[in-house]
């Protein structure tokens, strides 16, 4: 080949890489629907579709136990929480979907989210209590007297899935079923078993809403499985019905938001404090995704499929429990065609990485890589690089406002909310922000109203600010990127942080030399465990001093400062209102 031809060939290749597949350049936001404000939010977005700074909206969340009979035109059995009578909002949602699409916005429907992924008893027992310490262990101490035995349904198994202030009951939670009476699921089971490259596959179809389930590890404790078994009584496969619903609503795609930390920790292999393997959860997640892939091919071939993925999901080294570290790495390694369907080609909705709800508290080894910075931008770059290294094209995620993790009532100074400098660092340092774009949680979540500035939390940025910059990076010439997320009734957005389940979950990690863990997070939780006693250092600010007596609630002056008193380490923060006080944090 002559030199000119070589140059031309190279130029062609570069051009091909620089132009992402049509529809893959996305500025996306999740929209949490609820009966009170959901309809107004959806209407406002639809009426302003041409000028909002996102070109994709994720309606969230439908239940993983949903039922939808094609042609029935009702959301009655989807648990989407839009309206509770008539057609449960079907016609309304369908009308707004068409209006959004006419304005150039794709609409996806998401299944899952934190509350539709949490099994309170098992998550408490094997993700948190098991390790005897960790960033969420204080809940077991405070409400359960320090042991899993003290956590029960009356104290919502010690409030691990949601904080006590949310007043949750078992009805608020649902887990992903294995609908093994369906021929579609049986087909998926054979494919997964045939491709299994880890331990032998063990299915658990008996974990179905309302059933009594005996703890498979202690073989004694019996709990009721969260969720409904309606899909069993009508003999349907919820993952297939999800695609039927998408077709009848005219949606552009469906989204799988799977975050079953309880499943990984209950069915892990390994012993003691690890490291463990989460092969069974790789099989379960991939089976659900494959069931959706097969349904799309059979029922609605134009439909795209995306997935939410954990920040540590593509990180392949040892797993110490508590997060879903490596889940997407192994799913891609063993079943590459499933990842490929979601990330390349006509059906690619993308792999959306929940790179938020991270912590910089290294007492729990939360910082993934001590050689680079532990602040939000540095951590996000680290996690996105693990996806790139694993060969999984992925889209970066942002969270607006107060993070759910670490718990703001317990460790507020190690939260790392999204600031302008972090956003700038991510947009400049994560290469795919210009090709596949980004997404955020959530369109109407307010910025954090806690005191900001040098003595408070970092000054985080609002949803419109984030959306405009993310949009401008991936769609540089689009006029919509200068638009705003429309306020409701001319007033400011109404969703409060505490009402929101989040989609995320983040991660903790491990220090390279020390066998420890950290876990990931999610709405309010995380867990982690460490086997090594580590000296606490205040990373945010303030000297470590000593004091005496119970200091809880007494005034302090330096945000992030710590003090050791009677073996309790107190941290100075805005626990409530605008006054800095000492709060119990950990032992010392
Ligand atoms: C639940 O646990 C709490 C705290 O450990 C205990 O006081 C309460 O009696 C338990 N309730 C039931 C119904 O077992
Ligand atoms: C939980 O219940 C308390 C007491 O009834 C109430 O003040 C609070 O607003 C409730 N929280 C939520 C999130 O509904
Ligand atoms: C399971 O599927 C078979 C065959 O479709 C059907 O006859 C049976 O009623 C189903 N069982 C339940 C519990 O739905
Ligand atoms: C904060 O402290 C001031 C002065 O001590 C007091 O008057 C005020 O009530 C406190 N505010 C809150 C929210 O606790």
Main traits of this protein?
588 residues; alpha/beta; TIM Barrel; eight-stranded parallel β-barrel; 16 helices; 29% helix; globular; binds 2-acetamido-2-deoxy-beta-D-glucopyranose
Adjacency order of strands in the biggest sheet: 1-2-3-6-7-8-9-10
Tell me what the CATH architecture of the largest domain is. Answer: Alpha-Beta Barrel
Q: What integer is the average pLDDT? A: 85
> How much of the sequence is in beta strands?
5-15%
| Ligand roster | 2-acetamido-2-deoxy-beta-D-glucopyranose
Q: In the residues, how many domains can be counted?
A: 3
Instruction: Name the CATH superfamily assignment of the largest domain.
Output: Glycosidases
What's the end-to-end separation, in Å? 70 Å
Any low-confidence stretches, pLDDT <50, length ≥5? 1-22, 491-544
Q: What structural category arises from helix and sheet content?
A: alpha/beta
What would you report as the Rg, rounded to the nearest angstrom?
23 Å
Helix-residue proportion: 25-40%
